[in-house]
UniProtKB/TrEMBL annotation:
It catalyses: 3-O-(beta-D-GlcA-(1->3)-beta-D-Gal-(1->3)-beta-D-Gal-(1->4)-beta-D-Xyl)-L-seryl-[protein] + UDP-N-acetyl-alpha-D-galactosamine = 3-O-(beta-D-GalNAc-(1->4)-beta-D-GlcA-(1->3)-beta-D-Gal-(1->3)-beta-D-Gal-(1->4)-beta-D-Xyl)-L-seryl-[protein] + UDP + H(+). Pfam families: CHGN. The lineage of its organism: Eukaryota, Metazoa, Chordata, Craniata, Vertebrata. This is Hexosyltransferase. It is a single-pass type II membrane protein. One of its GO terms (molecular function) is glucuronosyl-N-acetylgalactosaminyl-proteoglycan 4-beta-N-acetylgalactosaminyltransferase activity. Keywords: Coiled coil, Glycoprotein, Golgi apparatus, Membrane, Metal-binding, Signal-anchor, Transferase, Transmembrane, Transmembrane helix. Its EC number is 2.4.1.-. Its main location: Golgi.
Amino acid sequence: MMFRRGFILFLPRLVGLLVVACCSVSIVYMLACTPKGDNQQLALPRVHSPTVKEGYEAILQEREEQQRNYIISLKKQIAQLKAELQGRTELLKNVQNQYPDSLDIQLDHSKPEKAQANLLAFLRSQVDKAEVHSGVKLSTEYAAVPFESFTLQKVYQLETGLTRHPEEKPVRKDKRDELIEVIELAVGSLNKPDGVNKAKRREYTASDFVEGIYRTEKNKGTLYELTFKGDAKHQFKKIVLFRPFGPVMKVKNENVNMADTLINVIVPLAKRASKFRQFMQNFREMGIQQDGRIHLTVVYFGKEQMNEVKSILENTSKSANFKNFTFIQLNEEFSRGKGLDVGARFWKGNNVVLFFCDVDIYFTAEFLNSCRLNTQPGKKVFYPVLFSQYNPSIIYGHHDSIPSLEQQLIIKKETGFWRDFGFGMTCQYRSDFINIGGFDLDIKGWGGEDVHLYRKYLHSNLMVIRTPVRGLFHLWHEKQCLDELTPEQYKMCMQSKAMNEASHGQLGMLVFKQEIETHLHRQKLSSKKT
């Protein structure tokens, strides 16, 4: 029934499109048959040329052949358009004959209340069909529709192309108006009396908005999830809105209290003590000092550099008065999947949010909140898209010195890229990880285990939240392409290395460095002569 109503609502638009198509065909035909202006005439041979007759005949013959081919091509296009137009007209007639009564009801303005009820029913059916209340089973990792995130000032987007930036102001008026409308509607919803609690409540404004995510399912509508500051520290208000290609509809208005939500950060490790020291500096500042609701689990493989790693961990514990950590040592070959799986299962407390992390990752306290807000046991898992840093020595090669790490971590086209092909950094509740079956422990070393887990979640009924986040960075480190790789593997490794080194423009400057220096040298010589 809803299909019939939706299709009938679409009929007037279809008729309009058919009329536009006919007009377009007519305009194309008129333009094609219009004689060329004088300035577009072919250049003819000079009168005194000895081959003037032959030249005229050759040009005229060539011109006639071109015109014949062009006319034949136009006739084919017109015939195809007429056939398509006729087919759509027949389809329209069949639908009108099949549903005459329904069409009369939909277009009967004498019954506005019934028409409005039908419209609202259709819009609500769009909400039910969209992935709003629960996840949908997906066939591959490419089938997931990613979210994009935004604040009051910036939009963080995945599909940047060649002209857009990974982080930019919403300069397009339609996008700017869309996000402003959604935020204003959410603020209005928060300030609307609920009819239950008569006590005086605080007045929410746009300045209380923390961040939002949104995505569009092309045949259903746009889903928005907006987070606002709550009434106390670590408390938030979350508004879910849906635009079913029409008016925005409120889906949910709920209080979200994250004051007691603990995150267990699990880091698998082998050697790399210097990287672990850098990681612990970030963990201490963001995780211990700013957030405070965090646990660290380090799963260490082997014994080489183990004492140094334990010493770093113990020193941080003493200096920051931090006791919420676990150190697990495994005497076997490194396996990232095995380390994360062991760390997740080792936890014996209440259900906890697991953040699977690596030592070359930098996160902010804001990201930890995003990790909590985008996970829900039995309903949601969070797969953030992190920002991958380019080689600082290339990015800042023209500077006097390389800036500090904190100054490097800015989201710009020249400094890095959204690592949308990586699925290793993820947040989920331990119960969901256990229920889904954990990692494939047959996978050794690095790579493969993260995609395998990601596909498990996609094939389940859990909703996968996939969005770029502004507080999660992959720090650049040199990629080693080993000699024992096959020629094809080595080539792929080098391509990956190049992609992580710098942007296209920066790599181009390195490739053409010699030409640029030669040009500058010539300019200097030229200026001296003058």
